[in-house]
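Can anyone check this?
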Amino acid sequence: MATVQELKRRIRSVRNTRKITRAMELVAAAKLRRAEQRIVSMRPYAETMAELISGVGRASSSVRLPLLDQRDEVGAVAIVPLTGDRGLAGAFNAQIMRRAFALERSLQAEGKGVRWVAVGKKGRSTLTFRRRELAGEYAGFTDHPGYEDAQAVSHRIGELFTTGEVDRVVLVYNTYISALTQRVTERDVLPISRDVLETDAEERADDALRGDFIFEPEPEEILARLLPVYLETQVYRALLESTASEQGARMTAMRNASKNAGELIDTLTLRMNRARQAEITQEILEVVAGAEALV
């Protein structure tokens, strides 16, 4: 049975740990609020970019661009898991890699090759440990991704696609639902779907009312410049979603850790009081026994 001093040391240690987890919870909450604000700020830009591309796409009868190339046979697929640079976020990183490896097994069962582009230190270390060859690796920015980080990732996956090394690119990341809920998402980003060049009947009617436009340079040339930016926008949006999800998961994990630490402190305190009572009882019995011996 543990002594009173040993239990005191354990209680002191758990209390110190609870201070750390509470501080980490507060930091994660502050980062989560900033991440949510960045997602909200990103939406108007993403929507305007989609409208611009669809507007230019309608002006072109036939568009043949590398990023739109829908290949008849898919020989290789690039999987891009968006993980964090740090742990202590519950199952955040594990569930991304679990889904990515499940996708890999599914593709290999269909006879397709798989290339990996790692984003985040946790994903990179997991892939390296499992001896996967990396076609690209990016880390050090997942807590606060910038647009230039999305550009770097987009440039690499665009290069793999346009050179024919892969015929499809899939992002695997956590979509932010709330601080308590994150949903693992698989999203094809290459080839870019031709749906982005199309609109519904109501929008076409509105365009007819606005009149015809003369494009300079030609619509195909404008699209050739816009599509890489559109890809960067999609990757950037996924990075922001992943960041918000990571902070939400970390905040929840640290809150649960603080709660568990409190329960452990209560249990240890009860055991310490019982141990102290047992020691006092034992001392009283020894005094009584000594007194009887002197009689």
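Reply from J.R.: I decoded it. The chain has two domains: 4-25+253-294, 27-251.
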